[in-house]
Model the fold of this input.
Amino acid sequence: MGVKLNALLKSPWVFHLSTGSCNNCDIEVLDCLTPRFDIERFGMLLAGSVRHADVLLVTGSANRKSMERVKKLYEQVPKPCLVVAIGECALSRGMFINSYNCPVPVDKIIPVDVYVPGCPPRPEAIIAAITKLIGKVKKGAEKS
Amino acid sequence: MPRTIVPIGPYHPLQEEPEFFSLTVDGERVVGIDVHLGYNHRGIEKLSEMKTFDQATFVVERICGICSTSHPFAFCQAVEDIFPMEVPERAKYIRTIIAEGERIHSHLLWLGLAGHFLGYNTVFMWAWKLREEILDVMEILSGNRNNYAMFRPGGVRRDIKAEDIPVVLKKLDSIVPTLDMLRRAVMDDPVLHARTKGVGSLSKKDALSYGALGPTARASGVARDLRKNCSYAAYDRVQWDMIVRQNGDVFDKLVVRVLETFESIKIMKQCLTALPSGEIDARIKNVPPGEGIGHIEAPRGECFHYVRSDGTNRPARHKVRAPTFMNLPTYKATIVGATISDATIILAAIDPCYCCTERLAVRDTKGTRLYGGEDLVKLSQEKTQRLRKELGVG
Amino acid sequence: MNRETVLQDLRKKFSGEIVEFMEKSPKRVYIEIKKDSLRKWASYMIKDLGARFNIASGVDSRAHIEVLYHFTLEDINLIISLRVRLKKTDLEIDSLGAEYPAANWIEREIHEILGVNFKGHPDMRKLLLSDDWPEGVYPLRRDYKEWDPNAIRDRGV
Done:
């Protein structure tokens, strides 16, 4: 698995999925595309469809209406796929932990590889998280 | 196809999901629209009842990321309305400065997205690059790019340092030339006129009967702006103009937002230079039992909060009404009868939370699913290319 | 049109339908009205005074469920809130959403989060809650209890 992922990660395509968020994290993810932060210099592109994704960026606190959707989308993503949870809501629902419409955190629905805390995390933090993840996977692939 | 299309997600090509917007089409025309809400519903009103008044300010900041200052502003006004009391003068000016900074960043964000939907990806990149300058200004003033956490019932939480003001004024002046360039690009481009004039028109009668708010209503001739009519904070102490247009189509909504950005810069500069000295917080100790209403002009319209207190340190009831709630039903009047390639720009014209607009599905009258969100954006961008060729523009 | 004449006219025209008239401050007035007169009030406010229907708030105040209808008169900077107190055994009121498009969605929301029945509403479907939300459970009531056995409410640390 490690070697295959390593090959894909030369130019990872990221897909952005919101499970019911306030959009702040989503806008910071979009900000990564803009000239100041520019993830394209790392070879990262925003994929138009989930079937082309290598890395899944998940935001939001997984409310009841979007739980099924998240599960189905994760099943559609071609494996291997890395999941990055961005923002406090995706980590543990943050301040919405007692909300009647947010029963479980995202990592109980789909497996998460990297957690990026912050409300919202800065675009620099998001890019750093993805590059760190890619570096870690590459090292893991070299070992095996 | 050259890599000029910037796909912005999330797109959900699933077949059996209830989409946020479900359009029914007959041939090329839209004949019906259904809106499904609830994908971002996190039960904030119930959550407020479990938090103290100070903590509730942070909860409401996270209702929407784009207008994250408008909700704390309206909530703090509602709590102050329970007494009723006025905040100190310096706090009023600081509140105005932060609120207008947010308006500029929100309108620039919308301009970029509108450019993307129409196929002008350069506008998208330029508008968001310019937006970074405003976020730098907000970071100097408040410490963060968004979620400024500046509001508290009774005043503001942090002060503006005197040495920051000349830096901020200089940065605001440096934004104006680029903004002017964007304005001229928008107002003078014939393809843009062909794409947006007469498209998605909302009549004044419909705007009034649906209770439309903000730029959506002001583009249809409804000359109301809470900052002028029900003036609050420092808006009646500075000079600025209300922008109103008459036709109610997408072009007018675009013009209203672009011109409002210039007015916001004017307000910010006047407030920064005339900032009075004094206290920034009235230091509320206990909220008496009673009820209060706070309403302010957010970038999208009137943001309305109703708070009831029973004398404890938690709200007994907190009702939140975001402006998009009243603007969304106007789709019944604007999009029915339009062509599919105009659908995305009409949906984007009222400036809803962008995350919801691309969750879209188009079906024919028998219920067969024809297109998804990304297909509609492509259709819109292709129409712009066609018009470009027809008008003989470069 | 100014504030004094508007309020005077309201007191005169609806003298039989007012339960309590509270002028809280120059910009806020709260009027408790009799349930059956709601449509007359709404018609007068929207058609004769030209007020804008702002939103409706439902409140569970233990003994009753109140529905407040907020109307804004922007030109004189006044918000008039009409309060209707409903007994918990009789949670029914005439719908304004049938006649005024601005009130359509908020009545759907109050119906699903508080359980008030709006008679004559053209399209009473769920607005915000998911389809698998149990019937008869109203989240904003004071006696709402967690019904989902799979919900996780601690951070696990």
Remarks:
- The mean pLDDT of chain C is 91.
- Residues 3-91 of chain C form a domain with the Beta Polymerase; domain 2 fold (CATH 3.30.460.80).
- DSSP finds three helices and seven strands in chain C.
- The first strand of chain C starts at residue 18 and ends at 25.
